Amino acid sequence: MTKSLPVLLLIASLHVHHSSLAGEPELGRQLHDKHCMNCHQPAIYTRENRIIHSFKELSERVKQCELSNELTWFDEEIDSVVEYLNSTYYRFEK
Prior knowledge:
- The chain has helices spanning 4-22, 25-35, 43-46, 55-68, 75-90.
- By secondary structure, it is mainly α.
């Protein structure tokens, strides 16, 4: 049992790390509603002439907005906002 404990801990930590990479849409929604709604109403995401055309562009745009507004979000928070926007409005392939 003691030999398998480090392996189990490693697997558990990898699972937690992997799930944090995906972003949490609910956290993303909360951050978006608090920090982004001043400039971005939902219509900007559903308009016909979108300027975002891929998951990569969406991620880069969220990072740019985060930096421009000096929000000092962690990468996980940025990923969560990207995941929220993608699952709610864009539906890009990752």
